[in-house]
Amino acid sequence: MGHRSNNQAGIEQSAQPPQGYQGPPPQGPPPQGPPPQGPPPQGPPPGQYPGGPGGYWQGQYPPAGYPPPKPKKKWYQRVWFWILAVIVVSIMASCFGGGSDQAAGSADTSSSAHQNDDANAAAHDAAGNKPAAKKPAAKKKAPAMAQIGDSVTSGHFKFTVTKVQKGVSRVGDSYLGEKAQGQFVLVSVKVTNVGDSSEMFMGSEQKLFDKAGKEYSADDEAGIYLDESNSFLEDINPGNTVNGTIVFDVPKTITPKYIEFSGALFSSSVKVALG
Fold this sequence. Notes:
Residues 1-65, 99-145 are annotated as: Disordered. Keywords: Membrane, Signal, Transmembrane, Transmembrane helix. By secondary structure, this protein is α+β, with helices and mostly antiparallel strands. Helices cover 24% and strands 26% of the residues. The longest helix is centred in the middle third of the chain and has 48 residues, at 79-126. It has a domain at 151-273: Immunoglobulin-like (Sandwich). The chain has three helices and ten strands; from the N terminus they run H-H-E-E-E-E-E-E-H-E-E-E-E.
């Protein structure tokens, strides 16, 4: 009897539920009660469920009537951002593309206008409508050179050539004289002092020129042997006139063209043609 009682007590003890056991879950749908008072419970962050450590699911579900919220998309994953970006890029491309096309069009128009102007100018020239070329200004003729018998003035003296002898080979007589190296040219001159004071006239200061423009000086030594014995080296008072001859020894091959008189050191010279 005592052994049976112990076994029966053990069976009864094993049939009792352990401490903390809450029994089987209720059958059927969960009871529908009034909604909880106050603000709705805040859900866990996106991608997590309430539960154990770390917020991961531990076998329990969120309360009835409150599904887990959807995770929020980042700003660059939203549709409106890409639509706005496409619009901005399109506007910028339109602005820059339009400006380039307009500049190119302006350049083409300017180039075409320039080519048209050149073509019109060429046609104008071809038609013989060129402006008349300016004629070169006529050169002023030099004043006619004085001739034998004309009077010219330089400084305080007035000169008049009265005679010219060419091809003279000797001057003087058979005893006293001089032979020309080439030929003597004798120029007879009348000189008048037109100044206010006495002036010395020197025949050696006068020059003779040929057709080539070569210059020849007077031969004072040969002038001493002239019959008149007047080589023009003397003072002439105001108003007085002196006649004399200037001798030049020049090559036989040249032709004397003119004589140049100078009445003073700084006075302008004058020319007389010798024919």
